[in-house]
Specification:
This protein is an alpha/beta fold and about 375 residues long. The chain contains 14 helices and 13 strands. Helix content is about 40%, strand content about 20%. A 7-stranded mixed beta sheet has the order 2-3-5-1-6-7-8, sandwiched between helices.
């Protein structure tokens, strides 16, 4: 289960600079993979120091981290929902993502012309919101006309769907995003297959100058205040700094560069962590001489569900899970030592996986 995020924003806000920095980011070690699937899709590894510690102890043939996929949604301008720019094509790409990264310009530079003449993060945010909302409204109205016809001839399921669609339609027409509509779980399931754009969780990325990385400027403060009721993540990065970090070859060089700036981690790390928090994701590990690997799952998943992320047969034929806590494995140094110390637990189908668990599944199909 990989994390897939669509990056949106107006022209000249630093969106492409950030995407290019992410896409050219070098992993912490040579055996951590990186690839670019196509020009507007980049896949980078999720930084996790726990993998490095496990590698040191287990000495596996290979280490496989989990990944995050970034999709650069180009062409979003005013009128994108009606096909302006490359609107329709790239709006369709967002439907396949788990979350939206909305890059907002929070720096003032006369050498970089703003598409609307001046820097105003609230206006810029609202333009993107409006285009996404219009696209969702179009989707809702198309489905609503079909469900109304079915409801008129006595279809009870269609009647319920019509009520839910009408609620979303009214909400969107008020200039509100779908994610802010309070609706029961059954209602949410009825419209899940529409893949509404504004129902996706959002991370607002405030692109600032280097001098504003440690102390937020007025632009950032205004945006935070504007989105405080959205249940969204807001992070501050400098796309230019991320570009410089991406050019450095080694993990050590990157750390030195960050230390010189008075920072402890890159914006990429902050962004990934924000994505995991927003989507309630955690990581568990499998560790053996062949491979040490990280697996991404949703918080609250049971052991069989976590096993199913590796292969559906693991979930279908689940018998038990042998679990070692990460800190115990690091302390005792091996699976055998953990077992001898009574730190290997055998868990059944009801066990809820904890972030950092080392797991070995027993199954029979």
């Amino acid at each position: 289960m990989g994390l897939k995020c669509g990056i949106v924003g107006l022209p000249n806000v630093g969106k492409s600079t950030l995407f290019n920095a992410l896409s050219s980011a070098k992993a912490q070690a040579a055996n951590f993979p990186f690839c670019t699937i196509e020009p507007n899709v980049g896949v980078v590894t999720v930084p996790d120091n726990r993998l490095t510690q496990l590698e040191t102890l287990v000495h596996p043939e290979r280490v496989v981290p989990t990944t995050i996929e970034f999709v650069d949604i180009a062409g979003l301008v005013k009128g994108a929902s009606k096909g302006e720019g490359l609107g329709n094509k790239f709006l369709a790409n967002i439907r396949e993502t788990d979350a939206i990264i909305h890059v907002v310009r929070c720096f003032d530079d006369p050498n970089i012309v703003h598409v609307h003449g001046n820097v105003d993060p609230i206006r810029d945010k609202e333009i993107i919101d409006y285009e996404l909302q219009l696209k969702d409204l179009e989707t809702i109205e198309t489905r609503l006309s079909k469900s109304q016809r079915a409801a008129s001839i006595g279809d009870k399921d269609a009647k319920k769907l019509t009520e839910v669609l009408a609620a979303y339609k009214a909400h969107l027409e008020q200039g509100k995003s779908a994610r802010s509509l309070v609706i029961d779980e059954d209602g949410a399931k009825l419209i899940a297959d529409l893949f509404l754009l504004t129902i996706k969780p959002v991370i607002y990325v405030c692109n600032v100058e280097e001098k504003d990385l440690k102390t937020e400027n007025d632009f950032v403060r205004k945006l935070r205040d504007a989105v405080k009721d959205e249940d969204a993540e807001v992070i501050v990065v400098s796309a230019n700094i991320e570009s410089e970090i991406a050019q450095l070859e080694s993990f050590e060089d990157k750390q030195l560069f960050l230390e010189d700036l008075g920072l402890t981690e890159s914006g990429l790390n902050v962004l990934i962590r924000a994505g995991y928090k927003l989507l309630n994701l955690i990581t568990y590990f499998t560790a053996g001489v062949k491979e040490v690997r990280a697996w991404t799952i949703h918080k609250g998943m049971t052991a069989p569900q976590a096993a199913g992320v590796i292969h559906t047969d693991f979930e279908k034929g689940f018998i038990r899970a042998e679990v070692i806590k990460y800190n115990d494995f690091i302390h005792y140094g091996s699976e055998a030592a953990c077992k001898e110390a009574g730190k290997l637990n055998v868990e059944g189908k009801e066990y809820v996986v904890v972030d950092g668990d080392l797991m070995h599944f027993r199954f029979n199909v």
